[in-house]
Amino acid sequence: MNIYDKTHDLVRAIKESPEYTEFMAVKKGIDTDETAKKMVKEFIAKQMELEYEMMGGKPEDKTKTEEIQKMYQLIIGNSKASAFMQSYMKFQRLVADIYKILGDSVAEGMDFFEKK
Q1: Which residue in 17, 55, 63, 106 has its CB near the most CB atoms, within 10 A?
Q2: Taking the complete model, does pTM exceed 0.85, yes or no?
Q3: Which among 74, 63, 65 is positioned nearest to 38, based on CA atoms?
Q4: How crowded is residue 41: how many other Cβ atoms within 10 Å of its Cβ?
Q5: Where would I find the H helices in the chain?
């Protein structure tokens, strides 16, 4: 068994998954609609900005949270943007699950680096 061959097998499996193929099909649709594309990009950027702030220890910014909720309502009202977000979230879930499986499998022995 060659680990690199297995990694390429995993990549092929991801690209053949329903989550990936649906995501790529929906992405083609939104690529032709600049309004929907801009709406989604701004929403994701704002959402990530808020998440990074909170991970950095800042308290939740209620104004930004409300702004994100309003942006999400606009996305729901746009069929291409809404379809993209649903597909994007499904694909992100798949990727997160794969990262977790990989991380858990190599975690053993990492306690060596813990401070005592």
Answers
A1: 17
A2: no
A3: 74
A4: 11
A5: 3-16, 18-31, 34-55, 62-76, 79-106
